[in-house]
Each structure stands twice: as C-alpha cells, then as structure tokens.
Amino acid sequence: MRVLVSGGGIAGLALAFWLERLGIETVVAERAREFKPLGHYIALKGNGVRVIRRMGLIEACRAREAPIDSLRYVTSTGRLLREDSTASLDRELGGLIAFRRADLHAALHEAISGKVELRLGTEVEESETAGERVEVRFRGGRTETFDLLVGADGVHSPTRERVFGKGLEVPFGGHYVALTLEYDHGLELQCGVAYLGRGQMVIFLPMSPRVVSLVVYHGEVGQWPESREPGALRAFLLREYRHFAAPVSRAFEAIDERGYVFTDVITQVRMPHVVKGRVALLGDAGGCPTFLSGMGSALAIQGADLLARAIAEHRSDVPRALASYEAAIQPLNARYQESAGKMRGFVLGRSRVRAAVRDAALAWMPDGFMIRQARRFYDAENATAALT
Ligand SMILES: Cc1cc2nc3c(=O)[nH]c(=O)nc-3n(C[C@H](O)[C@H](O)[C@H](O)COP(=O)(O)OP(=O)(O)OC[C@H]3O[C@@H](n4cnc5c(N)ncnc54)[C@H](O)[C@@H]3O)c2cc1C
After folding, report:
1. I need a labelling partner for 369 at 20 to 30 A (CA). Which of 30, 31, 160, 287 fits?
2. Please, which residues bridge with residue 240 across strands?
3. Which domains, from first to last, does the chain contain?
4. Which ligand 1 atom is at minimum distance from the Cα of 123?
5. pLDDT tens sequence across 102-159
6. pLDDT digits (tens, 9 = 90+) for 330-360
7. Among 262, 264, 267, 332, which is best to mutate for testing ligand 1, by the most ligand atoms less than 8 A from CB?
8. Angle at alpha carbon of residue 101, lines to 324 and 283, rounded to 5°
9. What whole-number distance in Å separates Cα of residue 188 and Cα of residue 356?
10. Taking Cα atoms as reference points, which of 105, 86, 106, 107 lies closest to residue 96?
11. What spacing in Å lies between the alpha carbon of 291 and ligand 1's midpoint?
C-alpha cells in the first residue's frame, strides 16, 4: 500500500508517524521549501494529549510546557472577573498542555525523520481516482499513482477545493493572531491573563520575565490591515486596543517587525463528507473547528490516529477503511464545531449587553461549574471517538 499525504503540518506528520509504524509506504508532500517549526502557544487537551502519550511524545511536549498555574479573566480595563487553576483543568480534562505549535511540529518531525519520505517544496496540482488507485500530478509535471491521497493541507486546503469544491469555509468574522514577544513585561509569572473586550480578546501567557506569548481574537472592529507585515499589524493593534489596560498596549509596542506572527481569518470548515473516492481530508482541511474551539491541534492528532487505525483494520480494503474513518471523525468534527459556535458570540460579539452578561456570568459562576461543563464535553469526546 502506498499513501500520499498532502501537507506536512501537525495532522500530516502525525499520520505519517502512524503509517510508518504500520509498515505502509508513505510520502508527505509539503509546500514549504524547508522544514521550519513555526507557531506559538496552543493548548492540546483531552484525547489529543492521550494520543501524544501513545505516540511516546508526551515527555518532549511536557518539557516545553508553558509554566502557567492559573488563568485570570479580566475586563478590557483590567478588572478581575475570575481565576481558574490550570492544574484542575489538566486533571479534569484528561490532560491539558499549553506549549508552542513549533515544538509539537518539531517533535513530530523528529519522530518521522529518516523513516518517512518528506518532499519539501512540492505540491499536488491534480488528482483523479482511477479504479483502485489515485493518480496524482505534482507541480512541475511529474505523475505518480497511490492507493490513497490524504489532504492534510490546512484550513485553506487546496486538496479540499480541488476534490470537494469551493465555498466550504464558513467565515466567523474576525481574525486570530498568535505571537511571542521579548521585553521586560513585568507580568506576574505562572499566571495567564485574558482581557475581554467587545469583539476583542487578548490572552497573555508569560513564559519568563522577558518572554510572553500572546493570543488575540479580533472580531469585526476597524479595518484589518491588508499588509501581512508585523509592523502594519502592530500599528493596527495599537490603534484598536488603545482603550485596553496599559499592559496590552505595552505588549503591542514590543512587536518586532522581523519576528514571526501567525495570523489567519477565523473560519470553520463544515463538510458533509470528508471522503471522496480515494481521497480523505484530515485535520483543519476536513473539519476546522476555528481557533475559538481551542481544539484544532487535538483534532488533527486524533484524526490522524483514527485514520491510521481504520487503515490498519481494513488494510486490503481502502474504501472500507475510509468509510470507517469518516464514521469516526465526523461526530468529533461536529462536536468541536458546535462548541466553537457557542464561543462565537462570547469572544467575537460586539454587543454591549452580551459583553456585560458574559462578564457577570464569569464573575458569579460558582467554582467548578466551568470545569464540570468542560468535563461533560470531554466525556462526550471519549464516547464519540472511542479512544480511551
Ligand atoms: C506555519 C504555521 C503556523 C501556525 N501557528 C499557529 C499558532 O501559532 N497558533 C495556532 O493556534 N495555530 C497555528 N497554526 C495552525 C494549527 O497548526 C492548525 O490549526 C492545527 O494544528 C491543525 O493542523 P493541520 O495539520 O490540520 O494544519 P496545519 O498545521 O496548518 O498544516 C497544514 C500544512 O499543509 C501545508 N500546505 C498547505 N498547502 C499545501 C499544498 N498545496 N501542498 C502541500 N502542503 C501544503 C502547510 O504548509 C502546512 O505545513 C499554524 C499553522 C501553520 C501552517
């Protein structure tokens, strides 16, 4: 059996890891010209952590974990609403690791290095299922055949667009920004802080006295800059967040014009099917829940595990394996998307009344309520993915 994975991000490398274990010849075609681990803080939770443990990567991930013991929710001007301990979340969720996407990507890359063929600077231009094979034409004209093509090429997946059609992204309205800054921030260590505004949210994760990671959820406020340069983003954020508490402006002032900032639109990918012929979609490509769910990397990791398991079980019957994968992953996609949908108004909504209700709920919610809600979500996740 020969599998082509389009996209060497989190989902693509995780799938390559499992397929190599199964002794299946796997080629990963990655558009980027060089392997460069990029990306800032993500939170891997629940089943995502369990799968990482089974992959033998838990130590590498835990070693790079953010030193955060609690998360404070405050208003845009800094008034405290509530504080939750991350240790209890970790316990109740069956795992919670906040660490850099770059570290997860590097750990996956190291695990497959020398074992899986990773073709950099390559992309698929055309593919067609022909009988029991899928024929692929790469950029440059080279053609090859495979038993299966997996589109793991991210939220704006070219594989999805080519094979399943256009218009499958559902924009939530707004942008996501992740960055890491170096300056004397003076923030309390071990304590994350989320500033909540109206359609604006900034989360600080202090890593050391001079390093802080930031996540910004920005709704439809102001005119998002056309330029992707960090300098243009800095000017925009300084202007649109000038009414926030002083630590927010101080952080934006520290944005380095030569630094790496990750930004993307907040969009969901809703697919009636993630399999067509001999092509399957994996990770964000097939079911991006949006950055609002906080489950993108967990979904990518679980999806890779589920697809590899389905292939292992029905190795000589690819259509059956794909049907089994689709049956397992679609309820999970739906669940994460539903939870992201619930977060939409909470984070991106501009209404003054809604923001006041949110802040009051956060302030008065009894301790343990949020944790119980989260636990209910993850219990359902376990039942859905049958992954214990
Ligand atoms: C460089 C980068 C930085 C990121 N940083 C953050 C971050 O800081 N915070 C956060 O929350 N999320 C970040 N993400 C997104 C996050 O990784 C995903 O939402 C999540 O992990 C799901 O993973 P995925 O493998 O489905 O998609 P991704 O991790 O996005 O991987 C998709 C891969 O496909 C490749 N690709 C795209 N088009 C093609 C093509 N035509 N042919 C071949 N390969 C292609 C991309 O280069 C990428 O390597 C980042 C993604 C990337 C690519």
Report:
1. 287
2. none
3. 2-67+94-170+267-344 (3.50.50.60)
4. 42
5. 999 999 999 999 999 999 999 999 999 988 999 999 999 999 999 999 999 999 999 9
6. 999 999 999 889 889 889 999 999 999 999 9
7. 262
8. 20
9. 26
10. 86
11. 12
